Amino acid sequence: MTGDMATVTGNRGLVIEEPLIFEQGSPAKCGVDLPDPADKPDRLGGLARSGAIGLPGLSEPEVVRHYTRLSQKNYAIDAGFYPLGSCTMKHNPRLNERMARLPGFADLHPFQPQATVQGALAVMHHLSDWLLGLTGMEAVALSPAAGAHGELCGMQAVRAALDARGEDHRRTVLVPDSAHGTNPATAALCGFKVRGIPGDATGRVDVAAFKAALDDTVAGVMLTNPNTCGLFERDMVELAEAVHAAGAYFYLDGANFNAIVGRVKIADLGVDAMHINLHKTFSTPHGGGGPGAGPTVLSAALAPFAPLPHVVAEGDGVRLIEHIEGDMQPFGRMKGFHGQFGVFVRALSYMMSLGRDGLRQASGDAVLNANYLMARLGDTLTASFEGPCMHEALFDDRFLKGTGVSTLDFAKAMIDEGFHPMTMYFPLVVHGAMLMEPTETESRETLDAFCDAVLALAAKARAGDAAFFTEAPRHTPRRRLDETKAARTPVLRWEPPAPARAAE
Amino acid sequence: MRYLPLTDEDRRAMLARIGAASVDDLFSDVPAAAWTAPEGFDALPPHATEMAVERQLSALAARNVPAGSVPCFLGAGAYRHHIPASVDHLIQRGEFLTAYTPYQPEVSQGTLQTLFEFQTQVALITGMEVANASMYDAATGVAEAAAMACRITRRKHVLVSGGVHPHYGAVTESFLRYTDIATEVLDPNPLGIEDLMGRVSEKTACVIVQNPDFFGNLADLSALAAECHALGALLVVAVAEPVSLGLVTPPGEMGADIVVGEGHAIGSPLNFGGPGVGLFASRKKFVRHMPGRLAGETVDEDGRRGWVLTLSTREQHIRREKATSNICTNSGLIALAWTIHMTLLGEAGFTKLARLNHMKAVEMVERLEQVPGLQVMTRQFFNEVLVRLPGHDAAGIVETLAERGILAGVPLSRFHPNYPELADALLLCATETTETQDIDALANALTEVLR
Per the database record, which ranges form the Glycine cleavage system P-protein N-terminal domain (chain B) (predicted)? Predict the structure, then answer.
């Protein structure tokens, strides 16, 4: 901050500079009162730690203030519009948080006798019923921890099924060029080679190229639908039939399930496996980067290979199966304990709240909101493909041509206007992509305010005011950060200053 | 519906602006064969009020026995500790709870600074040089550590000690099953006497051990580390109970190359086992091989210190099939809870908490050693031990005691049903939440049922 805007402290009203915890406090302080331990001889076998660890000491009020101040330097859905494409940043209902904190859920040990956790196992079973009812699929593996982990679950099931068939010549996975980067990463981890499939002029998979690539070396296909251009793959049923005719499996990336939930059962699309991001479609909070959950639904062909544990209804109760029984052929175990249980409770609370009718309304409103953005912005920004779009609207940077303003600059100017930017430079199939996903939990007033701001910014860019964009953001706790410096000379932890080290 | 702000009037006006007759028309690209009418979902219930959902879920919760409502001695990778009230208050601030991964650093400095502090705390307590911004949990963290060791050493053989948590071993085996890496998981090793040194060779990428191990044994890993390094292999050390690091020599000081920890026990409730948070630390020279996100220090255009996610060219959303890991969304909020709890504890609180845990376990062991027909097997431990109940089925004993309102540990048969010689073995753990009267109740009940 320069000139007459500067303050003597560097603070700016509600935005207060906050040092690291390591630059505060003293070893004499502590924010927790504990009883004194007994003074018995230890049984550590001579392996007691020697010397100080170097952790700072702060009292409780100092700790509360530290994290409160830091929180105020974050943008969040609670604070404003967050149209981050492909991320489904919808409202996170607080009922879900309250339910997850009931002691009967939060204070359960994973290895209590099963008779003492029947309610928890029932939660897992109800969640499975919802996921199967919404997708029409045969089975669900609840344990994957997030989207990429769910992809891994689905593709490992594909690999296990091929191994069971003795088809070790099938080692190619087809992935469209518009796919999430996690798709090829996942396929590679399962021992598959990735072959890219081009898109057509309408933003969808090129059906002819797709079919031409299907031969007896193909293990499976990974497709996102609605795809990352925000469009429904119209030919999906035909594609799935061709995949199955070729002896391969169809993996659907469920990152965009929010667009079709309560309207399309993905089993009807010919899908063999799909992960479901509970932290997207079913409203569990992103928490600044997790935890999520990526339960993976499976077709009858892949169900026998679902990883452990399984949850089955038996008599009046529910049983957790942790080891192989009968003819099940699980490919293994993906996660410690029984999966992201706390996330399951939140997602179930959301499903029960919206119900079958509310979920259908939610996907309808999500798609309506995205099409409304497309309608209001499409004449000014450049829409990459013809609509209608699904739950997200894709634009590229043609409207900025010759202005000296990039997609990144435009996004940073949006931050100054109080909006979180859209997803940028993804998908890779269009130049300077801007992918906007409004979700169903935004009002028309919010969408209008956002569109008004974006249209005004576009006019400003075209009027030649490039500096307004290239110098943005100006009103944030920090201006643009030097990412090159961060990567060239990585500083990944605090180190004590040199004089303090000498004094040790 | 309370989560949906659009009114019917909004919808009409918006459809008019779009030029569509109905919302269903916007789905015209969906083939008719894949379209389900509302009746197609009739098997699922309709929407419900907040009151109704709360009533139904509370009824399910009431069917469980919360661990804190009875004397509880369960560990086996999930440890029950007291969580200061301010932790849960702070992580529920919407600015933390409802933010995405901090891709836009100018409006994410709060999350990024907490991650930088988290990384520093993890590095300090493990005795390592650098740490990442978290993994899903320890099990997936160990699997990623194995893959990382193979990248660094360009070797293809991973050796997992029989003292490692069975879930960590199983997840590692599954994760690497379809790669060209061979994972060898040794038989369960309750007494900590397997010969790992004799099994390391010039082909070994890494040896994975746990300290304290799954059966509670503490070990000095220095000699094993030296042997690994002499043969060009890495030593990966898992820590299932992070509180132990407040009292026990950290893996970094024993020569570990990668340390993986389960962090949930600090800052988060048991949650029936998830979500957890994987702690992941290593030597600085390996940082470009590390999985997961990293927060790094830099400056902004005005020269002020700030933080960004860095070295992301390792990650799959950028690097696609050449990525160094399978993790994308990780465990940010659980890492936040961990770092807040750790900050509240500080040096004095963390070391005292650890000593308190150990002393409670010593008290428990001294009392159990007086129970006829029970043998404490673990000689040197932190807060968990293995006991044997010769002539008894430990799982049956645990169920009997559960009916009496005591959660009396974890029988090994739950993990190793195919090892009849372990059927009488039981893991018992004490923490700062364990009261003397709880220990008395356990010892008295065991004395009765073992008679």
Answer: 1-445
Start-end of H helices in B326-382? 332-368
Return the number of other C-beta atoms located less than 10 Å from residue B216's C-beta: 29
pLDDT in 10s for each residue of chain A, 504 residues: 455 578 999 899 988 999 999 999 998 899 999 999 999 999 999 999 999 999 999 999 999 999 999 999 999 999 999 999 999 999 999 999 999 999 999 999 999 999 999 999 999 999 999 999 999 999 999 999 999 999 999 999 999 999 999 999 999 999 988 888 888 889 999 999 999 999 999 999 999 999 999 999 999 999 999 999 999 999 999 999 999 999 999 999 999 999 999 999 999 999 999 999 999 999 999 999 999 999 999 999 999 999 999 999 999 999 999 999 999 999 999 999 999 999 999 999 999 999 999 999 999 999 999 999 999 999 999 999 998 999 999 999 999 999 999 999 999 999 999 999 999 999 989 999 999 999 999 999 999 999 999 999 999 999 999 999 999 999 999 999 999 999 999 999 999 887 655 444
CA distance B389 to B398: 11
Nearest to B18 among A27, A371, A446 (CB): A371
Q: Which fold has domain B85-341?
A: Aspartate Aminotransferase; domain 2 (3.40.640)
The 3-state secondary structure of A290-354, one letter per residue: CCCCCCEEECCCCHHHCCECEEEEECCEEEEECCCCCCCCCCCECCCCCCCHHHHHHHHHHHHHH
Gap between the Cα atoms of B248 and A46, Å rounded: 9
Between vectors from CA A265 to CA A262 and to CA A267, what angle results, nearest 5°? 165
The domain that holds A394 is classified in CATH as 3.90.1150.10
Helix (H) or strand (E) holding A374: helix A341-377
Terminal Cα-to-Cα distance of chain A (whole angstroms): 37
B207 min Cα distance to partner chain A (Å): 20
Angstrom CA distances, B219 to A47, A412, B87, B213, stand at 8, 53, 33, 8
Q: Are B283 and B86 contacting, i.e. CB atoms less than 8 angstroms apart?
A: no
Do residues A273 and A380 both lie within one domain? no
Beta-strand pair A218-224/A296-298: unpaired
* Residue A385 domain boundaries: 375-479
Same domain, A151 and A248: yes
**Range(s) within chain B of domains with CATH label 3.40.640.10:** 85-341
Torsion of CA A170, A171, A172, A173, to 10 degrees: 100
Structure tokens at A446: 């919010």
ipTM: 0.97
Contact of A454 with A405, CB cutoff 8 Å: no
Assigned domain for A369 exists: no
Q: Which of B88, B343, B383, B386 to mutate to test the interface with A (most CBs of A within 10 A)?
A: B343
> Same domain for A186 and A274?
yes
Two tokens at B54? 């709360």
**Distance in Å, alpha carbon of A74 to nearest chain B alpha carbon:** 4
Torsion angles phi and psi, residue B376, rounded to 5: -85, 120
CATH of B68-81+346-449, one of 3.40.50.1950, 3.90.1150.10, 3.30.1490.20, 3.30.230.10: 3.90.1150.10
DSSP labels for A442-453? S-HHHHHHHHHH
Select the residue of B311, B323, B330 nearest A289 (Cβ to Cβ): B330
In the structure encoding, which two tokens stand for residue A42, read together? 């230890």
- The CATH number assigned to the domain holding A308 equals 3.40.640.10
Record: contact B298-A482, CB cut-off 8 A: yes
* Residue A481 DSSP class: B
User: How many residue pairs from chains A and B have C-beta atoms closer than 8 A?
Assistant: 715
Total domains, chain A: 2
How far is C-alpha A50 from the geometric centre of its chain's CA atoms?
A: 42
